[in-house]
């Protein structure tokens, strides 16, 4: 068999390299020459290879796969990727331990992260959860403090059980999660042998605008398997990467892990009258009252080619929703909507969403620009909104979320211009000016406005007229328009001066 020809080694700029083992020196004993730019490039890049690790969920494993819809849930959501039985969507999943650093052992007693990125035709939907249906705290003020208690003592730099139990003992809402953590399910045998949960309450809404509260459950088809403390200690002594190795090798041999996705559904009326706060992250919904409804099957069937690029740089955030799925009043979720995206911008950069593993598979059009590592191409439209430039991205009312009716409070997007008078005070100010001030105002405006497009000039003239007819006429004349013609074109009733 003919040997495969090796690819040509190049610099990061693409220049072919002739010798990658010997530095350029003045004579065989040196010194080095600064013109050896390929050596400098290697040194400089090496010095910058590490990025900040995640504050939580620092160590993880990931894989690609598919999600296939197996049950019709369109009565609850209009999400396109859930629109019909049999529909498949590409996914990327990252599993993790929560408290440990990047060098932690996989088989430690800890909560496991379970984050799924659905690459849908309407954008990415990230379901960022854990292997437990609840969490330690219900108020976001306590989240940062909780994580501090699970990390290293600021003086000794050691993990400290006194810190952990001091916090838990002062926060009785943690008891549900603590009980799970120290139960037989506290140390999963592998990522394949555990369930995943969205944990929070989310919203779903259908194409009729009907709103539902939901919880997400991923049930492993491999069965639940866990480790005792003794088994975990033995495994850690032999191999600190047990979960990573198990997931990678299972996929490589074609033993693709699968989970069945279910939802629990609660109507707003049920939520309003429920006997405890249904948005409390420390509590579950009883399955007898809110049974699991099958949605589809998640299968992982492809390993990443580059761990750093595809797993370490993968960024999941609870704020990545698609039409038909949204947040809820859960206080912890509300805080996470901001904190996760902010953490990614700090750790990976403001354009982290343009990295391949995070990039949506659908077209993306927005008004965000620039920043480190910007890669947007062909975005010739302006970077402000609203605008009247032909071909610029526009919002579409069909994607507006339904209002939340939370008792007497209605959560909605209220029109900030409705019932507001934007003209009277501007007109009153104009009428305070003497003739010289009015003329100078009109000329100054015309000198600037005259450089805008004709349609923009006429649109703005309409506003001047609504403030004061004389105001509009002076600016129109300064722009070279016939006021009578402009008034007819704009439909201005100038029979009574302002």
UniProtKB/TrEMBL annotation:
Coiled-coil annotated spans: none
UniProt key word ATP-binding: no
InterPro entries: Catalase, Catalase_3, Catalase_AS, Catalase_clade1/3, Catalase_core, Catalase_immune_responsive, Catalase_sf
Active-site residue numbers: 57, 130
GO biological process: hydrogen peroxide catabolic process; response to hydrogen peroxide
Keywords attached to this entry: Heme, Hydrogen peroxide, Iron, Metal-binding, Oxidoreductase, Peroxidase
Region entry Disordered, spans: 1-26
Catalytic class of the enzyme: oxidoreductase
A GO cellular component annotation in the UniProt record: cytoplasm
Cofactor names: heme
Keyword Lipid biosynthesis in annotation: no
Xref: SMART domains: Catalase
GO MF entries: catalase activity; heme binding; metal ion binding
Binding sites annotated in the UniProt record for heme: 340
Reactions that this protein is recorded to catalyse: 2 H2O2 = O2 + 2 H2O
Domain Catalase core per the UniProt entry, residue ranges: 10-393
Gene3D superfamilies: Catalase core domain
EC number(s) from the headed UniProt entry: 1.11.1.6
Family: Belongs to the catalase family.
Protein name per Swiss-Prot or TrEMBL: catalase
Native source organism of the sequence: Rhodothermus marinus (strain ATCC 43812 / DSM 4252 / R-10)
């Amino acid at each position: 068999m003919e040997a495969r020809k090796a690819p040509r080694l190049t610099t990061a700029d693409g220049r072919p390299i002739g010798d990658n083992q010997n530095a350029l020196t003045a004579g065989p004993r040196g010194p080095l020459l600064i013109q050896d730019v390929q050596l400098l490039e290697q040194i400089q890049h090496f010095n910058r290879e590490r990025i900040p690790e995640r504050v939580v969920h620092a160590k993880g494993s990931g894989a690609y796969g598919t999600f296939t819809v197996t049950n019709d849930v369109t009565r609850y959501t209009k999400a396109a990727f859930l629109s019909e039985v049999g529909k498949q969507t590409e996914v990327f999943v990252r599993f993790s331990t929560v408290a440990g650093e990047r060098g932690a052992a996989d088989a430690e007693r800890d909560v496991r992260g379970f984050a799924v990125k659905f690459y849908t035709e309407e954008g990415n939907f990230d379901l960022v959860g854990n292997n437990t249906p609840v969490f330690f705290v219900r108020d976001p003020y306590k989240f940062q403090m909780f994580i501090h208690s699970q990390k290293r003592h600021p003086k000794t730099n050691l993990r400290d059980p006194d810190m952990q139990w001091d916090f838990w003992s002062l926060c009785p809402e943690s008891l549900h999660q603590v009980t799970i953590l120290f139960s037989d399910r506290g140390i999963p045998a592998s990522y394949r042998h555990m369930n995943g949960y969205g944990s929070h309450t989310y919203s779903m809404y259908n194409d009729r605008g009907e709103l539902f509260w939901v919880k997400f459950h991923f049930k492993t088809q491999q069965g639940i398997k866990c480790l005792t403390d003794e088994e975990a200690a033995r495994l850690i002594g032999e191999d600190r990467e047990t979960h990573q190795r198990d997931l990678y090798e299972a996929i490589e041999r074609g033993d693709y892990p699968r989970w069945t996705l279910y939802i629990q559904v609660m109507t707003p009326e049920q939520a309003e009258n429920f006997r405890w706060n249904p948005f409390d992250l420390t509590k579950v919904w009883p399955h007898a009252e809110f049974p699991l409804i099958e949605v589809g099957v998640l299968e992982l069937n492809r390993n990443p080619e580059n761990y750093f690029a595809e797993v370490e740089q993968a960024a999941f955030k609870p704020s990545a929703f698609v039409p038909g799925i949204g947040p809820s009043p859960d206080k912890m979720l509300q805080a996470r909507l901001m904190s996760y995206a902010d953490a990614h911008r700090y750790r990976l950069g403001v354009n982290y969403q343009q990295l391949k593993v995070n990039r949506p598979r659908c077209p993306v059009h927005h008004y965000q620009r620039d920043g480190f590592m910007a890669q947007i191409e062909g975005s010739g439209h302006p970077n402000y909104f609203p605008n009247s430039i032909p071909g610029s991205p526009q919002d579409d009312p069909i994607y507006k979320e339904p209002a939340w009716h939370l008792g007497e409070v209605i959560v909605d997007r209220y029109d900030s211009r409705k019932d507001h008078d934007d003209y009277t005070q501007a007109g009153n100010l104009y009428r305070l000016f003497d003739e010289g001030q009015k003329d100078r105002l009109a000329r100054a405006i015309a000198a600037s406005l005259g450089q805008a497009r004709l349609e923009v000039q006429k649109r703005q003239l309409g506003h001047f007229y609504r403030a004061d007819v004389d105001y509009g006429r002076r600016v129109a004349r300064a722009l070279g328009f016939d006021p009578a013609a402009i008034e007819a074109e704009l439909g201005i009733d100038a029979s009574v001066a302002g």
